[in-house]
Structures are given as C-alpha cells and as structure tokens.
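Anyone up for a design puzzle?
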C-alpha cells in the first residue's frame, strides 16, 4: 500500500459507539476521528486497519483498508443490520464455561458465525475447576464430537500458569485474535492472564449462579509483548446468525450434511420424508436429535436474511402453513369452504 506524505497506517484498538482509538506501528494509542465524508456511512470496528493523518491531539481517519476477515452478527432490528464485532482476526476463541453456560446448541451457533467470518475457530472451555473430573471428561467428549477438528482448550482459574502455554500457538507475533462468548464465562479473565496484568475489569459473580453481568462494555484491543493483538468483547446476549452463508452452516454440521447425501430426496428437509438418512441415524442412536434441531433452527434463521420485518412475518406465516401447501393455497382452501 502506498502512503501519501504524512499519512500513516493504524489499527483500531477501541470502539465505543462512534468513539475510536487507534494504535500506531509502535503500539502507541491515539484518539481517532473519521473525516467528514466517512462519518456518514462508515463505522469502524476493532481490528480494522486504516490510513490516517496525525493531528495535534487525534488521528484523522481517511481510509479503511480492506478487511481480511469480518466477525459480525445480525441485529434483530427492522433493517436486519449486520453489526461488525471485529475485523482482521486470525483466530476467534469461542469461550464457554463448563458449568451453567455449557450449551452445545449455542456452541454450534458461535462456530457457524466464526466460520462465516473467515477466521479460524478455537473452542475454549473455562471454569474446569468448578465441575467434577467425570463431568469434565463427559463434556469435553461431547464438544469434541460436535467440533470436527476445531482445537479445544480447557482452562481453570486455579491453574493460571497453563493458560500462557496452551494459548501460545495462537498468539504468534502480529496475529489478531478475539474472545467471544456469553457474559460471565471468563473472557476478560483469560485476557488478563495472557496480558500478565490486571488491566481489564472482571466482576465477581455470585457463587450459585454464573449469570455474569456485562462487565466488559467496549470492544478493545490489547497488544502482547511480541506484537500479537488480543480483542476482548462484551458477552453477546443472543447470537444472530441470519445472513451467514450456507457453507458456514454446513461446515459446522458436517455430520448432518454427510448423512443428507444418503437421503432418498435431494431436497429432503429431514422431517417426515421417506428414506431420510438423517432420521435413520437418529433412530439408530448415531446422531443426537438435538443436533438436527439446532441445524434446522439455523436453516430457518438463515432464510430471514435480508428481509424486512414485514417480509419476515410473511415468511413465518408461509412456514406455518407449509404443510397445507403455503399460505395462499390455505386461503384459497378457506374460500372454497
Ligand atoms: N472458578 C472460576 N471462575 C472463573 C474462571 N474464569 C473466570 N471466572 C470468574 O467468572 C467471573 C466473570 O469473569 P469475566 O472474565 O469478567 O467474564 P467475561 O466473559 O469477561 O464477562 P463479560 O465481560 O460480562 O462478557 C469472574 O468472577 C471470574 O473470576 C475459572 O476458570 N474458574
Ligand atoms: Mg469481560
Ligand atoms: Zn433427510
């Protein structure tokens, strides 16, 4: 890339609404403002590389450089607006606690979101110290079965010295990584351990429930000594997947996709069609029924992508009446009666 006179390349290190900070090549942090033209139609995300011009006490952002990966989720609002969580990530740590937050369906949703981003997923199971060794083994096996070769890391707060070692392969110089996952699962705790100080706030949650409160409220990037960048994100309340590609969904559900190739009908929905290999695998105990349920939920949500709320309503109605040949047919049937 060719920089003009006093232009410099920076990376966005903090985003809170329309307020930004960027770091320069020496990892010094500066306030940043978008130039007039950009302000109207650009929202930067943590991890973005930009071209800017240093001013007296801020950096004027002139240009967003192409994103090599984009982690985004779909907002539920009217416009079905995709919200960029972070950009240019190499690895995304899908963080889930082994106690109350443990939920395989949610893990599937995150995995799909990450495959869709262009970054590589790594599953991080936290709070191993809070469950029995038996339950740990069982849950690890369940995750491994769903994860198709995605690396799985297990952490426990009482073994902090292990954290650096197990994360080292993903934190090589200049690599960008991010932690995502529900609130209270221990993302900031891990970032703190990796940074080696207590720069980020974590909050104690009551011993009897791990419904963590939103401690982290901004998306911020931290730089390790070797130049690796770690992004901490606030816990995501609901993981929207509308708009993720079919390929990303399929990558998370290779077991079902493979089975579906054996179904008698190529467009089998795995509901009550004859010769359905997916249903057969469930009946034979080879596939957990919850897998199919979470796959089908994702498929339904994906269909709503890009639709206005009115169209979504209509699509839902169509689905409800699918068994009677669609809403229009249903109305016709009513009229005839
Ligand atoms: N027992 C135990 N507690 C942990 C572990 N990791 C984190 N915690 C605790 O869980 C609570 C929440 O941790 P945070 O790191 O703030 O969680 P977070 O994922 O950053 O949460 P948000 O910022 O709200 O998204 C804190 O009280 C931590 O001390 C662990 O491995 N074992
Ligand atoms: Mg946090
Ligand atoms: Zn089928």
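Challenge accepted. My sequence:
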């Amino acid at each position: 890339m060719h920089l003009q006179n006093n232009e410099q390349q920076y990376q966005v290190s903090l985003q809170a609404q329309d307020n930004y900070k960027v770091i320069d090549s020496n990892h010094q942090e500066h306030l940043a403002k978008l130039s007039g033209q950009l302000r109207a139609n650009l929202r930067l995300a943590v991890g973005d590389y930009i071209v800017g011009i240093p001013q007296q006490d801020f950096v004027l952002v002139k240009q967003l450089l192409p994103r090599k990966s984009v982690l985004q989720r779909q907002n539920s609002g009217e416009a079905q607006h995709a919200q960029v969580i972070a950009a240019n990530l190499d690895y995304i740590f899908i963080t889930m606690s082994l106690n109350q937050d443990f939920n395989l369906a949610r893990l599937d949703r995150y995995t799909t979101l990450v495959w869709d981003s262009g970054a590589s997923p790594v599953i991080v199971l936290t709070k191993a110290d809070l469950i029995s060794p038996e339950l740990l083994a069982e849950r690890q096996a369940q995750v491994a079965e769903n994860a198709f070769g995605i690396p799985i890391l297990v952490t426990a707060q009482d073994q902090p010295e292990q954290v650096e070692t197990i994360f080292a392969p993903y934190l090589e110089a200049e690599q960008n990584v991010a932690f995502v996952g529900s609130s209270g699962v221990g993302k900031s705790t891990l970032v703190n351990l990796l940074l080696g100080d207590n720069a980020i706030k974590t909050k104690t949650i009551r011993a009897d429930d791990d419904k963590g409160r939103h401690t982290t409220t901004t998306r911020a990037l931290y730089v390790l000594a070797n130049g690796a960048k770690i992004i901490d994100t606030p816990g995501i309340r609901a993981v929207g997947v509308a708009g993720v590609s079919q390929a990303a969904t399929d990558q998370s559900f290779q077991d079902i996709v493979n089975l579906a190739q054996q179904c008698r009908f190529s467009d089998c929905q795995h509901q009550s069609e004859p010769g359905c290999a997916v249903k057969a695998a469930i009946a034979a105990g080879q596939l957990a029924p919850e897998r199919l349920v979470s796959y089908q939920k994702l498929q339904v949500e994906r269909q709503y992508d890009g639709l206005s709320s009115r169209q979504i309503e209509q699509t839902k109605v169509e689905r409800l009446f699918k068994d009677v040949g669609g809403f229009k047919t249903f109305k016709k049937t009513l009229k005839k009666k």
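A detail worth pointing out: The domain at 246-336 is CATH 1.10.40.50 (Ribonucleotide Reductase Protein R1; domain 1).
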